[in-house]
Structures are given as structure tokens and as C-alpha cells.
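User: My advisor, Dr. K., asked me to get a structural model of this assembly before our group meeting. I'm new to this, so sorry if the format is off. These are the inputs:
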Amino acid sequence: MAEYKAPLRDMRFVLNEVFKASELWASMPRLADVVDAETADAILEEGAKLTARELAPLNRSGDEEGAHWDNGDVTTPAGFKKAFATYAEGGWVGLSGNPKYGGLGMPKMLSAQFEEMMYSANNSFTLYPTLTTGACMALNAHASQEICETYLPNMYAGVWSGSMCLTESHSGTDLGLIHTKAEPQNDGSYRVTGTKIFITAGEHDLTENIIHLVLAKLPNAPKGPRGISLFLVPKRLVNEDGSLGESNDVSCGSIEHKMGIRASATCVMNFDHALGYLIGEVNKGLTAMFTMMNYERLSIGIQGLGCSEMSYQNALEYAKERTQGRAATGATQPDKAADPILEHPDIRRMLLNIKATTEAGRAFSTYVAKQLDLAKFSDNADEKASADALSALLTPLAKAFFTDVGLENCIQGQQIFGGHGYICESGQEQLVRDVRIAQIYEGTNGIQALDLLGRKTVANGGKFFTAFAREVKGFVESNNTKTMAEFVTPLSKALGNLERVTFWVINKAANHPNEIGAASVEYLHVFGYTAYAYMFALMAKTAQDQLTAGTEEESFYLGKLSTARYFYKRLLPRIHSLTEIVISGADPLFELSNDQF
Ligand SMILES: Cc1cc2nc3c(=O)[nH]c(=O)nc-3n(C[C@H](O)[C@H](O)[C@H](O)COP(=O)(O)OP(=O)(O)OC[C@H]3O[C@@H](n4cnc5c(N)ncnc54)[C@H](O)[C@@H]3O)c2cc1C
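Assistant: The format is fine. Below is the predicted structure of the whole assembly, which you can bring to the meeting.
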């Protein structure tokens, strides 16, 4: 496995040059005093060291050893505890947390890039703090001040961690079916009873307390999703003075043995009249939980992106070293028995597929994070509303597209290794196993596609989509120059295609209930490639400007333009076949009767 090296140059290009993050931060009073270009750069630099030195070295050993369960106690693999302590002491858990409770208040544009480094270095490790960050966000947004004061400082400090307890054996996607009950007590607290499965970081040895956010139903709650409330249930109770009290009635029944992310403890959690506290309003638990889930969704998308980057670094190193056969145009290393496999068009094709989609994905994750920052920090009501709409639209797209492409990229990296990619030593087979879950948890990618096309597009008559399309058209119009034509002309066509297909589905769905579900996955991919085309047009414009101004880094910017050209010529055309599938409609899916399957 190649040694992980954070792609700092590309991250800085995206953050500082393409999206001019420091100018944006300076324009928002609530960020202006917190972060500037220099601070952001120092954070990325430190993040790169931490992930390369502390997390990446534990990736393979963590996979081989896995998490252990022993009579209710869970231990993480050797080295995890020490690495987590270093991580927590560095203040990384609270990187984007609320400064009022000890967080550092950093923008998502920055923390998203750090998260990418984390996932590249070690998927399993990253899930422990990520769940905590998400739980903190839900508490910060929906819990009382007293709860925030009691829990958030310890969680941001990494002394306590968080978990998200939704899933039950009979209730995954359809959370309206949950059985877990919460009974109100006279003192305003609740007793929570039920069993949750597949709970990431539900039990472990990294922190002294675990704060579970649990979905449960009150007696006589309305049936379905409208009867769900959210509860904070600590593993250990907290005394009035903030010190740790006795154990709560929460236990870990077992952990799962699974395909990948083996060092991440996936737990069965039993709540047996456990003491809990209501978060947010009664029966509005799903709304509160969505604060956590939306954050987690972008983060899990970034898992796909981080794995793509690692796949690229690993496969590129191998493609330069491995010699097999001769270049079709004649030997490039005539003194050796064979040429590096990097000379073969098929190997270049796979490497460029990974490189292009990873660079576009990095830009897109920063772009979505920018919308989240504007929605959170902007004082301009119009800007905030537009950013809210864009982040709602683009979060399910990022989650599903990054992770679908992430698996494809890890498999292509594995293919570059030939048979060695199937063997543990290469590290590629672990990447394939680890990235696979990202398409499934945090709402399957099928559900993300339904969310994008159903709730976020058809349900509002394409309003959010139109806002996105307007922005892209604005870019095309103001960059309709001779030098940018090779990018903006196909971008404009791709956007026109996406617009047509969007309104085709909106119209069809008015009379045919199955059209959304039939179109959604391929629609999401048409949207994803079109969004990436927009990202490459933005990056190409920045690269051209730098080259025109004169730069010592000509090779970097020329490389960016070549990668953009590759994307436009060899990946963007995928939208045509995907569009054909979308507009074939739902009928072919239902021609076969159920008993003909
Ligand atoms: C390793 C791991 C870690 C996890 N971590 C957590 C965690 O920390 N907390 C937590 O609460 N859960 C967690 N989960 C659970 C995970 O989020 C669920 O597995 C996932 O949401 C899918 O639910 P399910 O497995 O019950 O599948 P189901 O809901 O049974 O879905 C089965 C299939 O049907 C499809 N489907 C279902 N409903 C519809 C519909 N209405 N329309 C179209 N298609 C549909 C799905 O897309 C899927 O393909 C984890 C799971 C795993 C494996």
C-alpha cells in the first residue's frame, strides 16, 4: 500500500483559488474572526500530518485485528486508543463545533477537506469521531441549553463520544416501524426500552462515556414517522456537578462480523428502562435526527471520495513501478525487459477515471460545504435561503454519487494491480471492502436517489433544481469566450439535457406513481456527471487565469486543464446512455409479473 500523502496542493487549489474561501469567510461576520487563509492552511497542514502519521499506519492492522466483543465490553484494535487520544487532544473532534461550548467553530469547507484526509487514511477510525460530530450537531441545534452545557464540552473534547441509534431488526429505511418505547417519568425524564442493531460506535474503549441519540416512541404516539421522538441516553449517567455517575441500563449485546470497516464496532444495543432525556419536541424526533443525518450523509459521501483518493495514490505508485509488456508505440525502457504498465492505454484510462472523478468530487464536496456554510453563517436572508435550498438538493447527490463512484474507483485501482489487487498486501482489496458500506448506510443510495428526485425535485416542481441551473447558466454566459468554449459549450449542452430530463420526470410523475422510483438512480448519475462538468469548468477557468497571469506552477495548471478535457471527452458522455434509461420510463420494470421473477 502506498503511504498516504494528503493532496494538499489540490485541496488548496479548490479552497483558495477556485472558491476563494478566505474572501467568503471575511464577508461573514460570524466567520471573519474565526478563520482566515493562514489559519485554514495551518489546519490542513496539521491534518495532513496527523492522518499520515497516526491514522494511516493503523489501517491495515486495524482491519486484521478488528474490534473485539467480550461479555458486553468492546475493545478497539491495538493503537486506536492512543491515536484517538492524540486526535482528541488536538481539538479535532470539535473542529466545526460551537465555540460557546468549546468547539473551534471552523467552516464546513475546511472540515470537509480534513474529513477526506481522514477517510483516505483510515475508514474505521474515522467513524468514531464522525458519529460524535454528528451527535453534537443534533444536540447543538435541538437540545436545551442545560443539556448542551452538560454534554457538548466533553464531546467536543473527545472525552465522551456519540452514537446514532435508529435501526432495529425490522426497521431500517422505514423508521416509522420502530418498536423502541420511551415512558415519561414524573421528573420530566424518560425510560427507554428496546433493541437497536447496526449501531456504529455504540460501545468501545476510546472514551469514558458514550452519548446515544435514540429514536423511540411515546405511549399513544401517532403511528409511523410522525410518532417518533429523539432521546439522549448516556452510557454512564452524569451527576449534577458534571462528574460521571453510575452506569445507565444500556448494554452491548454483540458486534457484527462484516465485509469491511472491521475495526469499527457495529453494535447491537439493548436499552432496558434506560434513563433518557427528550431532545427537541415530542414526535418531532425525525426532524431533529435529520440534523445529524444530513451532516453524516455528506460525511459518508466524503468516505467515498477519500477512498477514491487512496485508490489513486496506491494504483498510481504501482502503475509506475510494475513492468509488463511494451508500450504500443515502442519501448520506453529499452534497457529493461518490459515497460511500466502506465504506458498502456487501458491502465491510463482507469487511472484518469479515478483522478478526474476524485478531483471533481473534491471540488464538489467543497462546493456543497460552501452552501452549508452560507446557510449557517450568512446574515443575508436571500443568500441563506438559496444556500439552504442548494444544500438540501445536493446533499443526497453528494452522498450517493461520491460513494457509487468511490466503489468504481476502488475496483479500478484493484484492477490496475491485476492479481496482486486481490491479495491483502496491496491494500486495494481492503479499500474495496471498506468503501462498499458507504453505498448502504446513512440511507441506501437508492433512498438518496429517491430523496433527490422525489422530495427535493418533483415535490417542489423543480424549484431547487432551477436555482442550481440558474447558477450554472450564469457561469456559462459570463465565460462564453474562445478559450473557455471547449468547456462551457459541452457544459451548457449537459445542463440543457439535465433540465429536459428533470422536467420530463416531473411531468410523467404527475400521473404515474412509479416514474420517480424508476428514474431516480440513473437520474442521480446524470445530475452527478453534469455537476462534475460544472466543477471542471470552474477549475479550468481558474487554471487558465493563473496561466495567463504567469505562474511557476505551469505543470499543475496545465495538468488540471488536461484532466478537465479527459473528463469532458471520456466521462461526461455517460449522461447520454443514462438519459436514455431514465426516459425509458417505469413500464419495462413492471412488464414482468411478480410470479414471473
Ligand atoms: C456497518 C453498518 C453500520 C451502520 N451504522 C448505523 C448506525 O450507526 N446507526 C443506525 O441507526 N443504523 C446504522 N446502520 C444501518 C443502516 O443505516 C441500514 O442498514 C440502512 O439504512 C438500510 O436499512 P436496512 O438494512 O434495514 O435495509 P432495508 O430498509 O430493509 O432495505 C432493503 C433494500 O430495499 C430498499 N428500499 C427500502 N425501502 C424502500 C423504498 N421505500 N423505496 C425504494 N427502495 C427501498 C433499500 O434501498 C435496500 O436496497 C448501519 C449498517 C451497517 C451495515
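One thing worth pointing out at the meeting: DSSP finds 20 helices and eleven strands in the chain.

User: Perfect, thanks a lot.
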